[in-house]
Write a structure and sequence with these properties.
By secondary structure, this protein is mostly helical. The chain folds into 2 domains: 85 residues, Cytochrome Bc1 Complex, Chain D, domain 2; 34 residues. Helix content is 67%, strand content 0%. It contains 10 helices and no strands. Helix 2 crosses helix 8 and helix 6 packs across helix 8. Bound molecules: heme C. Heme C binds next to helix 3, helix 6, helix 7 and helix 8.
Length: 121
């Protein structure tokens, strides 16, 4: 029983590895650091992608074979490392933009807005 438990714990610790750089070195660098020979986009090109799209490529896209050995959390970690962006950050920015634009469009007939809001109309 004990060795099995130890193996499970070791796997859990590996799955929770927070180091995107180490994951990249271990699973991706052999191709992505050698674009000329492999045609794999260089890290500078991957940086232009959204982290969500990198995860998608690893889950079901062009990189699904390469993503297969990675746990879901590791895919996210390596995607955030490569793009330098947090998953969900873009969505938060869009939501913020949306609520700002609603404030501007909604203010014309809203008498309750504070003076600062009315100046935007
Ligand atoms: C065996 C070599 C190899 C390995 C290992 C590899 N890749 Fe790739 N990767 C490629 C190649 C080649 C392409 C370009 C595929 C194409 O355009 O047809 C690519 C494309 C990509 C793309 C762009 C996909 C798209 O939809 O445009 C992403 C993102 C990516 N790789 C991430 C990773 C990550 C993250 C890892 C490590 C977990 C990894 N790759 C491991 C060879 C590799």
């Amino acid at each position: 029983m004990r060795p099995i438990l130890a193996a499970i714990l070791a796997t859990a610790a590996f799955a929770a590895d927070p180091d995107g750089a180490a994951l990249y070195q271990e699973h991706c660098a052999m191709c992505h650091d050698h674009s000329a020979e492999t045609r794999a986009p260089a890290p500078s090109a991957l940086k232009m992608m959204s982290p969500e799209n990198v995860v998608k490529a690893l889950e079901s896209g062009l990189m699904k074979d390469q993503g297969a050995p990675l746990a879901a959390a590791q895919k996210k970690t390596v995607a955030e490392f490569l793009t330098g962006k947090m998953i969900g950050a873009q969505q938060a920015a869009v939501t913020e933009q949306f609520s700002k634009s609603r404030l501007v469009f909604g203010c014309s007939n809203d008498e309750d807005l504070p003076d600062a809001g009315k100046h935007q109309c």
